[in-house]
Write a sequence for this structure.
């Protein structure tokens, strides 16, 4: 415990702070903001953009966040100076007012913004993360790896997910997306484990599915995201490789290179895994070079799509103000979201 914390908490036998030491104000979370409320606190910057007014002037649009959710923030004055302060991935102290506009939705109108001091926040307050401990996600992954019976697929997965593998080191930390689902540190691991577990369970419910191929494809379908996204948990964005090549080609070539290092790898087995990776977005319009043409690829696509949408519900609910049961229209699910337990 730091000296500062000791002063605030007071002696253990007392249990109350000295009267002359002020208590730190309770943090105001994004999810707790209500219409018309004054805002003053520290947030992480996810996005920034200078936009043009109709009269030729500039205004600043930000997306700021804490671990409870994210919110749009706008600055109408001193937009250029505010832009320089609000570097994506940094922590900023914002003072302003939160309002819900009937047409433009909820946002903070910024009155003052500055770089946050180190003593004003904890990093864990700003970065989102999985609801399941990462150690549990790792254990679940290794349980799935242990169920693969095909020796060649087991060797491929061992190489990619070994403790000393560079792929695994990044896979463990990477996000699953920039915004819509599991857009946080360990998000790729969180998403992959849930998809692979569901594919494993569903494989036994439908005839003709090669479970080993389907589960291997589920575990590797998003492996290209280890190269497609940066490593800043507060400002997730695409890397140059992610923008220029895309996560599906990156994943395909990563897995193909590893398979080519395994002597005698069955080419038909390799093709089955490649097809799952290349088709898992489902349609050409959604970025897949090919559409699912096998049972295993169809299953992985369906479960991946389901996992992404349900992950969006988690994100939407975290950002919903207290007392609200309906969200605004959300592109992640192509609909507003309704939460029955909140209505109750």
């Amino acid at each position: 415990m730091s000296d500062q914390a000791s002063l605030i908490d007071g002696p253990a036998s007392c249990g109350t702070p000295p009267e002359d030491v002020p208590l730190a104000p309770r943090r105001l979370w994004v999810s707790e903001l209500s219409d018309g409320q004054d805002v003053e606190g520290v947030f992480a910057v996810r996005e920034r953009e200078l936009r043009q007014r109709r009269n030729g002037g500039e205004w600043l649009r930000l997306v700021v966040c804490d671990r409870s959710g994210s919110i749009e923030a706008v600055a109408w004055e001193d937009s250029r100076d505010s832009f320089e302060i609000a570097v994506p991935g940094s922590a900023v102290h914002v003072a302003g007012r939160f309002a819900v506009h009937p047409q433009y939705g909820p946002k903070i109108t910024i009155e003052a913004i500055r770089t946050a001091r180190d003593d004003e926040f904890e990093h864990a307050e700003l970065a989102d993360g999985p609801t399941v401990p990462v150690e549990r996600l790792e254990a679940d992954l290794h349980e799935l790896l242990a169920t693969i019976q095909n020796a060649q697929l087991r060797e491929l997965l061992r190489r990619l997910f070994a403790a000393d593998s560079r792929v695994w080191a990044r896979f463990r930390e990477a996000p699953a997306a920039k915004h819509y689902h599991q857009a946080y540190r360990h998000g790729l691991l969180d998403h992959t484990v849930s998809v692979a577990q569901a594919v494993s369970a569903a494989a036994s419910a439908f005839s003709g599915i090669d479970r080993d191929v389907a589960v291997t494809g589920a575990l590797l379908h998003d492996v290209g995201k280890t190269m497609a996204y940066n490593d800043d948990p507060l400002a997730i964005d695409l890397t140059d490789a992610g923008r220029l090549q895309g996560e599906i080609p990156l994943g395909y070539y990563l897995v193909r290179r590893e398979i080519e290092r395994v002597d005698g790898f069955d080419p038909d087995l390799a093709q089955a895994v490649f097809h799952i990776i290349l088709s898992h977005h489902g349609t050409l319009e959604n970025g897949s070079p090919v559409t699912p043409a096998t049972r295993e690829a169809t299953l992985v696509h369906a479960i991946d799509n389901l996992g992404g949408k349900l992950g969006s519900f988690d994100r939407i609910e975290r950002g919903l103000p207290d007392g609200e049961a309906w969200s605004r229209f959300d592109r992640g699910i192509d609909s507003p979201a309704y939460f029955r337990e909140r209505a109750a």
Q: What stands out?
A: The chain has 14 helices and five strands. Residues 51 and 59 are 5 Å apart (CA to CA). The first helix runs from residue 3 to 9.
